[in-house]
Design goal:
Length: about 60
Amino acid sequence: MFKKMIDGSKEFFLDVKVETKKVTFPTKEDTIGTTTVVFALVFMAAVFMWILDVSLSTIIAKILP
């Protein structure tokens, strides 16, 4: 049983090594481009929510004196 577990572990780690060599990592330019897009979209969402918050707060303040 112990031998079977060791052989299984060896095979698993060899498979991990083979699969790791198949991985392609993004280039620096890809990472910078994707990060820029994410920051821009988060900023736009924050501005939209801020405008919505201010608008709804103003409307509610006028309805409830």
